Amino acid sequence: MKIIMLGAPGAGKGTQAKQIADKYGIPHISTGDIFRANLKQGTELGKKAKEYMDQGLLVPDELTCDLVMDRISQEDCKNGFVLDGFPRTIPQAEALDTALAKIGQKMDYAIDVDVPDENIINRMSGRRACLNCGATYHIVSIPTKVEGVCDRCGNAVVLRDDDQPETVKKRLEVYHAQTQPLIDYYKKQDILKTVDGTQPMEKVFDAIVEILGA
Ligand code: ADP
Ligand code: ADP
Ligand code: ZN
After folding, report:
1. Which residues are catalytic?
2. Which of 10, 13, 47, 100 is a good FRET partner for 108, with 20 to 30 A between their CA atoms?
């Protein structure tokens, strides 16, 4: 099962993708997590990516596409994968389709987690992320058991640099200009499914399981 998560920044793609990965036993591939891991390790890619991320801009396709193509060609992706945060542009989507076509495959589902802009700023200002294990929480709707501490690994959870309200506004603009066109792209391929992302986390997941099958 090969799945793409679509949706605005903060729509809940990562939250849902992790649960999909657990339930269906497929890897969760988040380009944002890959960039942040690179930054933490101090790689050239990480440093370059941060320049764009901190401004709320997309990292250029040249730095993004090969990385994903390498990752999905690995052994653990043989039975499928869930992409979270990729593709984010039409050229990225085309690169993905081309790479899969070469091995006689195609994506199965593009799930759009639909959340209006009004809800996004609130979601993002309350998001807390563990930069060690990638877990995400929300101070109101999905709090950590102990304030400021990751349930999963015990490290500190923080407000990401790019989750400051001014940067979130920019990211939303970028989303509408560059990523939203993918909704039509996958509608034309007949693999688009939309779920109402304003529901509580469990309800959103139920709607996704309904689409993918239990
Ligand atoms: P969110 O979870 O809020 O959607 P991500 O963690 O997916 O954010 O991405 C954080 C940032 O990393 C983006 O704002 C962008 O700068 C960069 N990024 C992540 N994925 C991509 C991609 N596919 N193409 C370009 N930039 C990306
Ligand atoms: P994305 O990966 O699309 O950027 P996240 O999964 O990181 O989004 O979710 C953004 C924020 O909203 C996080 O703080 C997360 O805990 C919270 N969140 C996710 N899903 C829901 C939901 N259904 N209801 C309320 N808050 C949610
Ligand atoms: Zn953690």
Report:
1. 13, 88, 127, 160, 171
2. 10
Among all ligands shown, which has an atom nearest to the Cα of 128? 2
Domain definitions of the chain by residue range: 2-118+178-212
What pLDDT score was predicted for residue 214?
A: 84
The predicted structure's pLDDT at residue 122: 87
Ligand 1 in reach of 175 Cβ (< 6 A): no
Q: Give the 3-state secondary structure of residue 7.
A: coil
What is the overall mean pLDDT for the chain? 96
Pocket test for ligand 1, best of 88, 138, 158, 159 (most atoms within 8 A of CB): 88
Minimum CA distance residue for ligand 1 atom 16: 53
Give start and end residues of each alpha helix (H) in the chain.
Answer: 13-24, 31-41, 44-53, 61-72, 90-102, 117-126, 165-174, 181-188, 201-212
57 secondary structure, DSSP code: P
CATH of domain 2-118+178-212: 3.40.50.300
Name the pTM for this structure. Answer: 0.96
